[in-house]
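Q: I'm building a small set of examples for a reading group on sequence design. Run inverse folding on the following structure and report the sequence directly after it, with nothing in between.
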């Protein structure tokens, strides 16, 4: 059994006819708003994209999560035999690499050149500041390091997401 969207696009009609049929189905209640938008995008050949907000969340979660995890828990774990395993270092490094790549990609999507430069510089400053704090604060206060980093990251993320809202409103 074919869906209404498949029926509209399966007839091999030209684009205008397909869009008109989809609009009729939507107006008649055969398609929800989301289904109509998705079907229209498919007909037009638009590839789905991830929102800047979603990409930012993942970028910062991975990057800041890696820095926070390294600062709080370190990179070695004790195995059951009592030896040290440095496997966590690879986890933190891979998280940071993926996250920082996403930060670069999300920054490229900001259209306002001045704001893109400001956010890019601030991203770098926060990451460098976090690395300096990790290096300067003593190892025996891992949870304190983690809390200091959480305050730094939280303050920046509040500013960033407020700025992102103003960019999207403009």
């Amino acid at each position: 059994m074919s869906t209404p969207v498949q029926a509209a696009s399966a007839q091999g009609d030209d684009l205008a006819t397909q869009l008109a049929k989809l609009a009729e189905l939507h107006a008649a209640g055969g398609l929800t708003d989301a289904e109509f938008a998705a079907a229209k995008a498919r007909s037009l050949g638009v590839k789905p994209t991830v929102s800047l907000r979603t990409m930012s969340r993942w970028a910062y979660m991975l990057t800041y999560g890696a820095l926070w995890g390294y600062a709080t828990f370190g990179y070695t774990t004790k195995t059951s035999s009592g030896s040290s395993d440095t496997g966590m270092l690879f986890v933190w490094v891979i998280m940071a690499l993926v996250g920082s790549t996403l930060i670069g990609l999300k920054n490229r999507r900001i259209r306002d050149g001045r704001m893109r430069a400001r956010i890019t510089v601030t991203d770098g400053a926060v990451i460098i500041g976090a690395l300096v704090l990790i290096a300067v604060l003593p190892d025996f206060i891992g949870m304190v390091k983690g809390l200091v980093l959480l305050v730094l990251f939280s303050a920046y993320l509040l500013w960033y997401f407020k700025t992102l809202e103003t960019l999207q409103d403009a």
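Residues 52-169 form one domain.
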